[in-house]
Amino acid sequence: MIIDMLNNINDMLNDIKWYNLDKKGFLMDNNSIRILLLKKPCIYVYKLTLGNENELYIGSTLNVVQRIYQHRYRVKIRTKELTMYNTRFYSYVIKHGWTNFTFGIIQYVDFEFDIKSQSNRKKLLQIEQEYLSKYSPFLNVNRAVRFTPTRKNKLNSVALAKKL
């Protein structure tokens, strides 16, 4: 059973286009900063490689660019005030640095995009939950996704991006 789970994880990881990260958490491609134009809903993964071991963090977003900025901002202020966010993931980024992580898109999720549509966010979270249940990524503290209204999340994302 454990061997099957490891094979499933390896199969998933092999199918992903990976991007390296610079020390500030920006995506790199061929040693130059790559600006993503992937403003599509998706399930994404950060992979931390330590020797022969890989640790994963799986998440979902309606907008990849905003989500990357959120993660970068939360790492930046983590030591000051954040305790309610995924402390394991952010603690590992602080300890090992962004350059030991890679980033990839597991799956794009197609639906008619409407930021006001709560059903789109729920659908995305259901798909994320399937990945969390299947792979049990170590860097995810919460193994069950929670739904929060997207308007609040969008406003927070915009405010966080402006602070960077």
UniProtKB/TrEMBL annotation:
Where do the coiled-coil regions begin and end?
A: none
Q: Which SMART domains match?
A: GIYc
List UniProt keywords, sorted A-Z. Mitochondrion
Q: Where is the GIY-YIG domain?
A: 39-141
* InterPro entries named among the record's database cross-references: GIY-YIG_endonuc (IPR000305), GIY-YIG_endonuc_sf (IPR035901)
Question: What domain of life does the native source organism fall in?
Answer: Eukaryota
In terms of Gene3D superfamilies, this protein maps to:
GIY-YIG endonuclease (3.40.1440.10)
User: What is the name of this protein?
Assistant: GIY-YIG domain-containing protein
